[in-house]
């Protein structure tokens, strides 16, 4: 704590005296990493300076009046109360200043909206509360979750440097390429925002909106969801890693290899210990935000899984809820989000943890069957 | 009309007392008083929520609340401050002052006036009691955006009901104000001789009449989407979630001026009094107010630059929004010109009015920055926006309300308030408010989203400064409470004119203003 207060003090000193330390603290937009972000940065500076100038002029006049035209100094009130010339002048001058601002602003608007001629296209989908990325040119898809450990959030562990702004799977793009973004959402409205790239586009369920950026510099750029999307709105960050063309190719190959091994898992048969261990990881990443790590949920908002009818009743119904969600509630359909192996694991975990002692195992093949037909028909006898 | 006047003549024979007096009253002064007390109670309730929010944000990590409860706090803070504190406070001023300023015996529809007020506590109880329901209060933001709003529990339906009731109350209040101003002015008081406060409320009442039904429509569609299987805002059923935002902000932007035009009126009454000089540019003030009101219907989508509108729509809404700076600038210049070469004194109402002019302008400039669509796309939904609208609503609307209370309280109670306490309240508020909200500009620029219960480490220092400011500002409002209670109870006797430079019909009446005033209309030359 002490060091924080020292920094607070230093900031005050920095504001008052020193120009050089200003760079250490954020008083302005983040350092731009694209031409559009640079244009926005310059536009903001220009408008701030004009506003500051007007503020100083107008309020110098007011404070002069407050100091000199006081009754206590014996100042007698004049009696003027209108002057058409003056009133026209101070209507026209602001209008002219505004036109001067509107012109450069309009140019940037048109540039930002021009999503033509992309080098590559990435579809981004917002979920409660994570992002998914689909690389349409390279056939890569993955989810991106907050990777800050829960212990750091509740304060039982020291907070890391990128607390709340770190993810398990960052979006990776090559430097200097026009990246077109197709942005949508799966459940509620989210907003994909990376300040250094000056992209903020709401992700609207059922609609696809596009945006674009071309990163000028290699580096890691961090952002957050900017539209209130429920309980964990503050916990779904965005990380964009801008890498060289060669590094990007290496990353693409690595992702394709990982996808192949994940597909192989879907045809395997697992034992109970494997399923429960894997299921716990899946549960923490996808379920615990609402249903809580202890499976007890939040009364009145998110139902408990521990002791619930679904997680202790027929396994087919349980799989059905996870695959298809519950329309009209915050319970999402996970059919498109999780692999057969992951769903099998998380079903097994939920049915054999906390107060749930069904002894049921689910296998990837069973999930694949449930995906195929009506969930009721797909009911398979529970393995012992 | 004559019926309404007669209804009051039986005061004195069998007029109820105690609680029944307040439940059944049709007197504009009683009703104005109730509006103001209601607003004060709501100010303290929603203020307490704000302090909880700031306490949670004092350091990174989750300490006092959980993310869901935090969202409930931000949502209810917004709803209650706007609909429970600021709007009822201005209605309180309208009830007290409009009849006194235009020389009318009461409001045009006294019984409807009673009904309009008594709907408010019902809505207030619905809103606040929803904290106790399963699932807690509404947590989807005061803007109620679907589909998030469709997901919530029973309290979301109660909130829709509360918004309907509040809207009904506002519509009845507005009909009353428009009718009173247009029909009940004293002989000789032409429209262009009306005090500016009356003008701003006339225009505000029209804004309310035009926009409250729009809000009612929007929330009704939410209600049927939630409960009756319609798909207005659900793309899967052919609806569009963004359509809600268009409808909501078509209400929501005029609403911003509903919250600030009466403030312009109060400040335009106060500055000439303490400058001992007539208001500069009266006619241009009236035209500027009307221009702002008309323009306010053409700018709504500047709240939605990040939804991804076509370039042409972004440009239209950017230009129209920038245009509002012109009439707003005219007002600022006129107030400064009113002070120029006056004979200024600095009693508490004047201090708050000067702070209003200065700090509201900061909110205006940050509004201009936000009007620039490319810059707005960086700043939308960040703390910069939080800073902007709190400069407009706290140092704007709320400070004007304080200024108006100090200005007219002697007329209402017959007692002068304690000037020392008033000055303490002013300086603590103005310092606390700036420590609280100014750092939020930097937080927004640096990239901190709004409505988050926890934040990355680089935002820590400014959040700590803001929280310190919040507690200074919050607790200094207790000074105001003490001051008002003391003034109601007693204090130096106020003269009829109260302020040396005060002009207008209300100052021709005795202090305190008698229960019935202007039973015979005064004649204005």
From TrEMBL, chain B:
Q: Which Enzyme Commission numbers does its entry carry?
A: 7.1.1.9
Which cell locations does it reside in? Answer: Cell membrane; Membrane
Q: Which GO terms describe its biological process?
A: electron transport coupled proton transport; oxidative phosphorylation; respiratory electron transport chain
The pathway this protein participates in, as annotated, is: Energy metabolism; oxidative phosphorylation
| EC top class named in words | translocase
Membrane-spanning segments: 35-55, 75-94, 115-138, 158-184, 196-223, 243-267, 279-301, 307-330, 351-373, 385-409, 421-442, 462-485
Keyword annotations from UniProtKB, A to Z: Cell membrane, Copper, Electron transport, Heme, Iron, Membrane, Metal-binding, Respiratory chain, Translocase, Transmembrane, Transmembrane helix, Transport
Q: Which residues form the Cytochrome oxidase subunit I profile domain?
A: 22-525
This protein's major location comes to membrane
One example GO MF annotation: cytochrome-c oxidase activity
Q: Name one GO cellular component term.
A: plasma membrane
Q: How does it sit in the membrane?
A: Multi-pass membrane protein
What is catalysed by this protein? 4 Fe(II)-[cytochrome c] + O2 + 8 H(+)(in) = 4 Fe(III)-[cytochrome c] + 2 H2O + 4 H(+)(out)
Please give the family membership noted in the entry. Belongs to the heme-copper respiratory oxidase family.
Q: Which NCBIfam families match?
A: CtaD_CoxA (TIGR02891)
Q: What does this protein do?
A: Cytochrome c oxidase is the component of the respiratory chain that catalyzes the reduction of oxygen to water. Subunits 1-3 form the functional core of the enzyme complex. CO I is the catalytic subunit of the enzyme. Electrons originating in cytochrome c are transferred via the copper A center of subunit 2 and heme A of subunit 1 to the bimetallic center formed by heme A3 and copper B.
Protein's UniProt name: Cytochrome c oxidase subunit 1
Q: What species is given as this protein's source?
A: Thiobacillus denitrificans
